[in-house]
Amino acid sequence: MAEAPYTPDGDRKSTRKVEPIAEVFEETERTPSTVPRPFAAALLITGPIFAFMGVAGWLTLIMGAPINTPPEFRLGALIGNFALCLLFIVPHSIFARGLGRRWLNIPFGPCGERPLYVFISGVTLVLLSWLWQPFGPVLWAPDGMLHILMRAIQLGGLVLMAWAALVVGGAHMLGLPHLRALSFGRKEPSAELVALPPYSLLRQPLNLGALAALTTMPEVTLDRLFLGLIFSVWILFGAPYEERDAEMEFGEGYTVYRDRTPRWIPRRKPPTP
Predict the structure, then answer these.
(1) 58, 125 contact by CB (below 8 A)
(2) CA dihedral (186, 191, 194, 199) positive or negative
(3) DSSP state letter for 90
(4) Residues whose CB falls within 8 Å of the CB of residue 264, separated by 6 or more in sequence, listed in order
(5) CB count, 10 Å around CB of 60?
(6) What is the enclosing helix (H) or strand (E) of 221?
(7) Residue 140: helix, strand or coil by DSSP?
(8) Which terminus of the chain is less hemmed in, N or C, by CB atoms within 10 Å?
(9) How confident is residue 65, by pLDDT bands cut at 50, 70 and 90?
(10) Is residue 150 within 8 Å of residue 218, measured between CB atoms?
(11) Contact present, 110 and 32 (Cβ < 8 Å)
């Protein structure tokens, strides 16, 4: 699920800190650990490695179905694939907020929260992509210009995802600053709100890119259709909760940004102040 580094006007100084609203007051009272934990940091550095491997496997799945996919429907494969989706989606969602975040603070304190989250997400995504079972007949595999168009939209979605991730900060998403803080016993890095493009154009560029990549797969078998549906529904359902979390963390600054910026479709002209 995407980070929320937004600001309504792009002024980093004016948005460096916005008081969180009362609903998450308990979460802001976490005492930072000052005990260096280099061994824990060395173990958790495997999280970004698993994350890269998992993303590579996920990309392999959505780029198209293999030619030798078994054409028959297999109920066991469907159930197994559904279990793999839940294995990734459920902890990825639970540990992103509320009680799940507090659980991630228990082993190593606040500095270990993000690295543990990346580790769990990376491992479960690796399992999903490696254990996925292709099955079912080819539902569509267009040729010619339609194939080129669908592939272009899919690649555009992946570029949008990469762009949004770079704006957020790839190192921050992978928890690398948190690992350094954990290793040396420093306070965990704090999130900032920025509104560089594409976040100045829409609130959910990372998720929009994922939706575009999932819904324009050129070669689709029954299992790929199932994958696209499960992840698309999850993204659409989870987007409002992500924004609610951002509002609780950044307060009024995010509320102003949300009111000015559309979620999915950019406006032609900025709204009149």
Answers:
(1) yes
(2) positive
(3) H
(4) 202, 204, 208
(5) 13
(6) strand 220-221
(7) strand
(8) C
(9) confident
(10) yes
(11) yes
With a cut of 80, say whether residue 70 has pLDDT above it: yes
Q: Which residues contact 141 (CB under 8 A, 6 or more apart)?
A: 147, 218, 219, 220
- The residues that bridge with 220 in the sheet, in sequence order, are 140
* pLDDT surpassing 50 at residue 214: yes
Q: Which two tokens stand for residue 222?
A: 């029954």
9: phi then psi, degrees, rounded to nearest 5: -125, 0
Please state at what angle helix 113-131 crosses helix 98-108, rounded to 10 degrees: 110
Give the C-alpha separation, 264 to 273, whole Å. 21
- Please, what is the end-to-end C-alpha distance for the chain in angstroms? 30
For position 269, what pLDDT does the model report? 61
- pLDDT computed for residue 247 by the predictor: 87
Residue 177: how many other CB atoms lie within 10 Å:
18
Contacts of 99 (CB under 8 A, 6+ apart): none
Q: How far is CA 3 from CA 114, 173, 189, 198, in A?
A: 11, 7, 14, 13
Reading the block at residue 30, the tokens are 């976490």
pLDDT of 18 > 80? The answer is: no
Residue 251 confidence class, pLDDT cut points 50, 70, 90 = confident
How many beta carbons lie within 10 A of that of residue 174, not counting itself?
Answer: 21
Exposed (0-12), middle (13-18) or buried (19+): which is 161, by Cβ within 10 Å?
A: buried
Of 37-41, 91-95, 193-197, least confident by mean pLDDT is: 193-197
State pTM to two decimals.
0.83
Rounded distance, CA 176 to CA 47, Å? 10
Matching residue, tokens 């959910």:
204
The dihedrals phi and psi of 168, each to the nearest 5 degrees, come to -60, -40
